[in-house]
Amino acid sequence: MTDRRTFLSGAGVLFGAAAVSKAAMGAVPEAALQTTPAMAPPLYPTTGRPYNPVVTLNGWTLPPRMKNGWKEFHLVAEPVIREIAPGMKARLWGYNGQSPGPTIEVVEGDKVRLFVTNKLPEHTTMHWHGQRLPCGMDGVGGLTQPQIKPGQTYVYEFEARRPGTFMYHPHADEMTQMAMGMMGFWVTHPKNPRATLGYQDCDRDFCFLLNAYDVEPGSAVPKVNTMLDFNLWTWNSRAFPGIDPLVCRLGDRVRIRIGNLTMTNHPIHLHGHEFTVTGTDGGTVPPGARWPEVTTDVAVGQMRAIEFVATEPGDWAFHCHKSHHTMNAMGHDVPTMIGVDHRDVVSKINRLIPDYMVMGERGMADMGEMEMPLPDNTLPMMTGTAQFGPVEMGGMFTTVKVREGQARNDYKDPGDYAFPKGTQAYEWTGESQNPVRAPSSRGGDIDPATGRVKELRASTAPPVKETTVTVRKPGAASGGHQH
Ligand SMILES: [Cu+2]
Prior knowledge:
6% of the residues lie in helices and 29% in strands. It is mainly β. The strands form 5 sheets. Strands 1, 11, 12, 14, 16, 17, 18 and 20 form an 8-stranded mixed β-sheet that branches. The protein starts with a helix and ends in an 80-residue tail after the last strand. The structure holds copper (II) ion. Copper (II) ion is lined by residues 233, 266, 320, 322, 325, 396.
């Protein structure tokens, strides 16, 4: 912090760069800093048009400064330390102390001036994803501007012409810089909400980015060359159980804005409520073009706003529906061991490696509870507990907590849901607990206690019919194609 103040007050160095325009000279606004992954309360506007501000999961909104009719912000690109979930911190690149950077919130028609200071070891730029703006403000390195060299500050000036949900990220060495966590959210509120077809004010307006990292167990810096096999699937650079719950008051109209800056699509699924997609990359969806959903796919580079009325009290799961995306590291490349009896092998290995543990022979659920020693700074593959035990999740998973009696604008976690008597699934204790099951294909029954196939019994084993398949390759002689 001291370092940054010194840097900013060293105006000779900073403003000597041709990058800073005349209009911006005089003073660069303070670059507010956030060092915790805690959710900041919504930032209500103190000047300009009123709006209902967004809440950024495990994030915060950058306070603007008004200057001669311009709404000014200062983003500082820099190395940061981000706690992905309790027990694991990653060395990322981000803005103003965190990854993702702070959310930018403005109103349609605002004149916006953004100072971007580069404190990274390599050059960068800033692209304002989805905005209508002059081409020279679009932030594509080499194409619309020279890259911002380390130590330089560039100024972007444009009018927020279109209301909607946007993102920001570098357009310079993108593969590296986005894999390191450089991104942020942007919301432009409509100037006249009633005149915007289909737009509705909401009681709660949440936002987060979908992002992903590949951090080897035991290390802290993401592997930046990974294309698809990420091992940490995150919302705002947080993995379950580190992701804030979305706390709602019963009856609230809720909007959730999601932007995807990963390398794959994410089908985002909400339990207990239907929602409609009310906003896309291009703005508000006209009401006649909407349909109800419980899952919506957010493709790469897309933004979606979903809306619903929180009519059902409870702790509702809210997650990506790709099951590997609700797991943390170490779950993706292990062999399947279901049904394998490796008791003998284990006792031999244990003589050499006392901590060695067998996993997966009855399925992987044991991973939710097991206290296997992990490398330092590594999240368990599936983790998190709630009032009834292990949740066995990780990655892109959290809850929407709907509560009667939650105060308006109160985002504090109300704790576990108190299920009313008679509204929960319960164990059947009557007769017929062990219905006869079909024999397995190996001719034996599965022993429910061990998960292993019981001894093969002649009386139940179906005859095994050997079939010989002859495969003949089509060749040129038979007139086949050369495939
Ligand atoms: Cu996903």
